[in-house]
Amino acid sequence: MVSTVLRRVSARAEPLLPIADDELILGWRNSEWTGIAPFLEEDVAFSSIAQNEIGHARAIYQLVAEELGTTADELAFDRKPEDYRCSPFVELRLVPDWAKTIARHCLYEDADQRRIQELIEADDPEVAGLAAKIDREEVYHRMHAQMWFERLEDEPQFQEALEELRPLVDQRGEHLPEFEHLWQEMTEVRRSVAGATW
Amino acid sequence: MVTEERVWQALAEIPDPEIPPISIVDLGVVRSVSVQPCPGTRSRDGAEVDSRVHVEFTPSFLGCPALEVMRDQMASRIRELGAEPEVEVVLDDSWSTDRITPEGREKLRESGFAPPAPREAGGSQLVQLQSKAFKCPYCGSTETRLENIFGPTPCRSIRYCESCRQPFEQFKTI
Question: Which ipTM did the prediction report?
Answer without folding.
Answer: 0.90
